[in-house]
Design goal:
16 helices; three-stranded mixed sheet; mainly alpha
């Protein structure tokens, strides 16, 4: 029996205490559906997007948009529902998120896809793919990767990137003149956010900041600051194979190169010192390979 996306979302997060050909068509079809939905009401949608691009979301809007977007992600990819894995990912994520600069509920889940990637959604929703998780070697790497995504949410990186590229005073006036019903507005903005998530390249400074602060958050939580760096090193090595490159669509299309990220992060790791835990055995026990 298929559980509705919103209902499944509640189950998945209850533990919280790329090009179409590359992705086997799954992401391509999802993008097409999102684009078709946007085109049907394009004039109204454009006004809503442009207004959101200028006016920062309220906390309530951020939560609503995040929940709607997360439900769409669950419907697109499915999630790993193994209770032990769900609990473990949320425990590690919550441990790192306690060090976040913005306090809010952070929730973590694993998308059931071989694609290698991670996604930070508004409202504290963090997705890691099964493809990324299975290429990790220890808990410090997991902590660093989750920390990176938490920083994106805490600092509202994608939201500010969207606002910096769109909008005008006219758009605000137009949107205010023709208000959308709340549920329609949230759905349309969730579609728009997913579109940008899969297509917008975050600036180098925001990616470097998420790597740096994510690694430092993990370090303050007791993990080795080298966790994220060694994961990036492993990803760069795996990506050398032509056979594997198709799995890295989102990471390669919306992130700077692994090499540039590693170079920037090495200074942070060196300054933090060689301390903290890797917890390889505990990771292997919690994440079946």
């Amino acid at each position: 029996m298929r559980i509705p996306a919103l209902a499944l979302l509640a189950v998945v997060f209850s533990g919280a205490v790329p090009a179409p050909a590359q992705f086997g068509g799954v992401l391509g079809r999802a993008r097409q559906k999102i684009e078709e939905s946007r085109q049907k009401a394009k004039p109204v949608t454009d006004r809503a997007e442009k207004a959101a691009a200028i006016r920062p979301w309220t906390d309530e809007e951020e939560q609503q948009i995040g929940r709607a977007t997360a439900a769409k992600m669950v419907a697109m990819f499915g999630v790993v529902e193994e209770p032990a894995v769900v609990r473990y990912i949320n425990l590690v994520g919550a441990t790192v998120a306690r060090q976040a600069p913005r306090k809010m509920p952070y929730r973590f889940a694993v998308l059931d896809t071989e694609i290698v990637g991670a996604f930070a959604l508004p409202g504290g929703y963090v997705f890691l793919t099964k493809g990324a998780l299975l290429r990790m070697e220890n808990e410090a790497q997991l902590a660093g990767a989750l920390g990176h995504e938490v920083v994106h949410i805490a600092e509202r990186h994608l939201e500010t990137e969207i606002r910096s590229k769109r909008g005008s005073a006219w758009a605000i006036e137009e949107a205010q003149a023709q208000q959308l019903p709340l549920d329609q507005s949230i759905r349309q903005r969730a579609d728009a956010f997913l579109h940008d998530l899969f297509n917008m390249r975050l600036s180098q400074d925001k990616e470097d900041a998420a790597d740096r602060d994510g690694a430092l958050m993990a370090s303050r939580a007791g993990y080795s600051p080298r966790g994220l760096l060694t994961f990036l090193e492993r990803m760069a090595q795996v990506n050398q194979s032509e056979e594997n490159k198709r799995l890295f669509g989102q990471l390669l299309s919306t992130h700077p190169s692994f090499e540039s990220r590693m170079q920037a992060l090495q200074q942070t790791v060196a300054a933090a010192g060689d301390r903290g835990e890797l917890l390889e055995a505990r990771f292997r026990g919690a994440v079946p390979h």
